[in-house]
Amino acid sequence: MAKLTIADLKKIKDEYRANQTLREGAFTVKVTVHMGTCGIAAGARGIMDTVMADLAASGRKDVVITTSGCAGLCSKEPMMTVERSGDSPVRYVALTPDKTHRIFAEHVMGGTAVKDFALVAGHETTY
Q1: Do 81 and 31 meet the contact criterion of CB atoms below 8 Å apart?
Q2: What's this model's pTM, rounded to 2 decimal places?
Q3: Where do the domains of the chain lie, and which CATH numbers do they carry?
């Protein structure tokens, strides 16, 4: 068995912290990439890769990336929802990697929704 290096231990520590943050709800932003079959077919995997790369480059530890199944709007895929603590969720549609970079920079990092790509803000549920 290979010996663990300091870098290996740091990686284990960071992964543990990320998992604890998710469980404890100590995040300020949640990004959900909709990855139902239609989303994957439309390019959601590339959107997920873009979000993960942007998050890694940012160094932020208070952002959680999750996935969900189909959101029921197949013609609008790929989609993602950004939820900032204290704000209404915003669903973005017809995404490309370039649009996703802009959403990450302006909404996830900066707190300002990108209205050009948003379908809806808030919950679509009616009671």
Answers
A1: yes
A2: 0.76
A3: 26-121 (3.40.30.10)
